[in-house]
DNA sequence: TGGACCTCCCAAAACGATTTGGGTGCGTCC
DNA sequence: GGACGCACCCAAATCGTTTTGGGAGGTCCA
C-alpha cells in the first residue's frame, strides 16, 4: 500500500466498479448485482464466483450510483435551528445542542443510517445533498418553518423536536409542551415564599418559548396572589446578556424599583448570567432573589451558586427523533412520544420547608 | 400546500427535474444545465427564460445525480474513533467529542460543505455513503488505522486529528505531540513538592496515549529525583473506573503501600473519578495527593475539588481539521497546524509558592 | 462566392448502479 | 416430437445530471 507523496493531488485511483467485477468473474453485470443483493436467480456456483471476484477487487458498490437508481441514500439530515440563529458556534453553554447531535448520530448509526448535519436547506444555492436524504429531523422549528414545507414538497419524511406552533396539522414531533415544567418551577418558588415573579423568554418563535409563555400566564391566572412580569431577551445574547440583565435589575432596585422575588429564565445561559450579574451586584441568591432555568446547561451546573434547572433530556430527544423518523421512512404511523423533562433542584432556589424526603 | 394525511406513506410527489425545466422553457437540457451553471454560451434572453422556468417549477438540481456525474458530493465525513470504542453514547463526560463534532460541523457548513457522522467505514456491509464523500476526517486514529488505508485506496483525501503512531509517512494531521503538556503538568506538581508520580493512561493505541507515555518517561529520565509509575485504565471504564481506581489506591495505602504524591490521568473522566474515589476514602486532595487531567471535561470542572486539566481545544481542532481537509481536496499542500493546548490550573493541584503573577 | 469565425444551441455519451423483460438450454410430460 | 416449465443468465432501459463534440445560421473579409 504505497502512499502518495505528501500533499500530492488526489490519486486518480479508480475504485473498481460492478463492470470490473463482472469482467473478472466472466458474467454480466446483472448477474453480479443479483448475486450481491440476493435477488433474481443465480446458481450457487456463479454466486460464489462473483463473491470471490468482488472480494479480490475490493469492490464496494458506489452509494451515489445506487442512490440515483433506488432513491435511497441511507442518510438522514439534522437541521439545528438554534445554529441558524446563533450564527456562530458558541464554545460554551450550548451543550443541549451538542448532546442532541451526539445522541442522534449514534442512534442513526445504530440503525444503519448516517447523520448529516446541515444548515437551512431552503436557502438557494445550497449545492449539497440536503434535499437528497431519506429523511430529516428539524430541531426547534420556528413558527411555520419553511424547512417543513420544502421537505414535504419533495416527499421527504420529516419529524421535529418541539412542535411547529403555526402548524397544528403537523403531529410528527417529539418533546414536551413545557406546561408541567413551568408549573413545577414557579410552584416551587411560590412555596418558598416568592410572590413577585419575572419570566425571561427568548425571542425566537419556537414552541418552547411560546408554550412556556402560555404556561406561565396560565399559572399566574391560577395564582392570583402572585404577580408575573414577562421580559424578552434574545437567545444570541447568551451568558453575557444575562449578566447585563441581572446587573440592570440590581441597579433599578437601588433606584426604588423593587427586585422580583423569583426569576424563571428559559435559557440556561441567560439564567446563569443573571445569577452572576445579581451576585456581582451584591444581591443574595437565593436569599433575596431565587433563579431557575428552563434548560439545563453547563453554566447552570458550574455557576456559583449552582442554578436550579430542567434537564430536557437531549439524549432521549435525539434518539426518539431518529426512531420516529425511521418509522415514517418505512411508512409507519407509530405515535410520537412525549419526553418528560427532569427537574433538577440546585442552590439558586430555596428549599421547601416540608419538601420531599 | 396540502399536507398528506398523518402517517400516510411517502408522497410520490416527483420533484421536478432538469428535463421538466427544459420542456417548460422550450430548450434542451444542455442549455438548462449551462444556463444554471454559467457554462458554455447561452444568450442572455435564453438564460433568463431558463431561470424563470426553474424558479416556476421550484427546480433544485438532484445532488445525487450530479454527484454521480461530477464525483463531488459536497459532503465530508467525520469518523470518531472514540465512538467506535465506547460502543455507546455516554451522556456525561465526553464533551471533548461533542465540541469537536460541533466545531467541525459548523466549520464545514461555513465552507459550503456538510458534515456526515459515520462509524467505521471499513466495515463490510456498510451500505451507506461513507465511501462516496469528498474527504474524511478521522479523530484519534489507532495505530495503523485501516480507515486511512481504505480512504487512500479510493483516492479520498483524509486528515486526522492526532497522528497515526504507526504511520510516519502520514503528515496530514493536526494536534499536538503532548510533550509540552506532560512536562508542564508533571513539572508543576514537582515544583509543589511531589516526588512519587503515577501516570494513568488509556488502553487505546492512539497518538495521545503513546506520545504522552513517552513524554512522561522522558520527563522521569530528566528528573532522577522523581519516581514514576505507569498504570493502564481502559477508556471505556469512565468515571466509575476512576472511582474504583482511586479507592483501590487508598485501600492499598492502609495496607502499607504508600500513595503517590501526584497522579496524572490522561482522561478527564478518569481523573475526576480518581479524585472522587480518593476523597471518598478520606484522602486529602490536593493536600496528600495532587491530581491532574490531560484532557479537560465537564467532570473536571464540576468535581469537588475542581481538577487541574489541559484544554485540548476541540473547537480549534475541529475547525482546523476541516480547513486542512478542504485544502487537500483542492489539491493544496498547506502545512498542517499544531494546536497548542491550554493549561488550566484548578484546585486539585497545589499552588506554586512563587508562581506566575 | 466561398471560407473562416463567431454565437447559440442541442443530441448523445458518459457516470455506476438496479430492474425489466426477455432469451437459452435442458428436462419432463403427454 | 412438440409443448411446457424451470433454472439460469443477460442486454438494455433507467435514474438525473454534466460534458463532449458538433451543427445551424449569421457576419465579415478576401
Q: What would the average pLDDT of chain A be, to the nearest integer? A: 89
Name the assembly state. Answer: homodimer
Strand order of the largest sheet of chain A: 2-1-3-4-5
Count of separate DSSP helical elements of chain A: 13
Helix and strand element order of chain A: HHHHEHHEEHEEHEHEHEHEHEHE
Q: Classify the secondary structure makeup of chain A into a structural class.
A: alpha/beta
Strand content of chain A: 5-15%
The parts of chain A where pLDDT drops under 50 for at least 5 residues are 1-12
Largest interface: A-B, 77 and 76 residues
Question: What shape does the CA trace of chain A take?
Answer: elongated
Distance between the first and last residues' Cα of chain A: 65 Å
Beta strands of chain A, count: 11
**Computed Rg of chain A:** 27 Å
Largest sheet of chain A: 5 strands, parallel
**How much helix, percentage-wise, in residues of chain A?**
40-55%
List the helices and strands and how they pair.
Two copies of one chain form a homodimer.
Chain A: H1 18-25, H2 29-37, H3 44-57, H4 63-70, E1 75-80, H5 81-86, H6 95-110, E2 114-118, E3 135-139, H7 146-153, E4 158-161, E5 173-174, H8 179-191, E6 196-201, H9 207-222, E7 227-232, H10 238-254, E8 262-265, H11 268-280, E9 290-293, H12 298-302, E10 309-311, H13 314-329, E11 342-344
Parallel strand pairs in A: 1-2, 1-3, 3-4, 4-5, 6-7, 6-8, 8-9
Antiparallel strand pairs in A: 10-11
The structure holds a DNA duplex (30 and 30 nucleotides).
Amino acid at each position: 500500500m504505497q502512499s502518495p507523496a505528501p500533499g500530492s493531488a488526489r490519486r486518480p485511483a479508480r475504485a473498481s466498479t460492478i463492470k470490473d467485477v463482472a469482467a473478472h468473474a466472466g458474467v454480466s453485470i446483472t448477474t453480479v448485482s443479483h448475486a450481491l443483493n440476493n435477488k433474481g436467480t443465480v446458481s450457487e456456483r456463479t454466486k460464489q464466483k462473483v463473491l470471490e471476484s468482488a472480494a479480490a477487487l475490493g469492490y464496494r458498490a458506489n452509494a451515489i450510483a445506487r442512490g440515483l437508481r433506488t432513491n435511497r441514500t441511507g442518510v438522514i439530515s439534522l437541521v439545528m435551528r438554534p445554529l441558524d440563529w446563533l450564527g456562530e458556534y458558541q464554545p460554551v453553554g450550548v451543550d443541549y445542542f451538542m448532546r442532541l447531535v451526539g445522541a442522534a448520530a449514534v442512534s442513526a448509526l445504530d440503525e444503519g443510517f448516517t447523520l448529516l448535519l446541515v444548515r437551512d436547506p431552503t436557502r438557494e444555492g445550497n449545492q449539497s445533498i440536503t434535499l437528497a436524504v431519506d429523511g430529516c429531523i428539524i430541531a426547534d422549528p420556528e413558527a411555520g418553518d419553511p424547512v417543513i414545507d420544502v421537505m414535504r414538497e419533495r416527499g421527504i419524511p420529516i419529524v421535529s423536536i418541539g412542535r411547529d406552533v403555526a402548524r397544528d396539522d403537523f403531529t410528527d414531533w417529539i418533546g414536551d409542551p413545557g406546561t408541567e415544567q413551568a408549573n413545577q418551577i414557579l410552584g416551587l418558588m411560590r412555596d418558598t415564599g416568592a410572590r413577585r415573579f419575572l419570566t425571561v423568554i427568548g425571542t425566537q418563535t419556537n414552541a418552547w418559548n411560546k408554550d412556556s409563555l402560555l404556561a406561565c400566564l396560565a399559572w399566574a391566572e391560577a395564582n392570583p396572589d402572585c404577580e408575573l412580569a414577562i421580559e424578552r431577551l434574545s437567545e444570541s445574547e447568551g451568558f453575557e446578556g444575562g449578566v447585563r440583565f441581572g446587573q440592570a435589575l440590581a441597579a433599578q432596585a437601588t433606584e426604588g424599583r423593587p427586585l422580583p422575588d423569583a426569576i424563571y429564565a428559559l435559557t440556561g445561559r441567560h439564567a446563569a448570567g443573571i445569577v452572576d450579574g445579581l451576585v456581582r451586584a451584591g444581591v443574595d441568591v437565593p436569599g433575596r432573589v431565587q433563579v431557575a432555568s428552563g434548560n439545563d446547561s453547563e453554566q447552570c451546573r458550574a455557576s456559583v451558586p449552582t442554578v436550579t434547572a430542567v434537564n430536557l433530556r437531549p439524549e432521549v430527544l435525539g434518539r426518539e427523533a431518529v426512531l420516529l423518523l425511521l418509522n415514517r421512512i418505512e411508512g409507519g404511523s407509530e405515535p410520537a412520544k412525549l419526553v418528560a423533562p427532569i427537574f433538577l433542584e440546585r442552590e439558586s432556589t430555596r428549599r421547601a420547608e416540608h419538601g420531599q424526603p
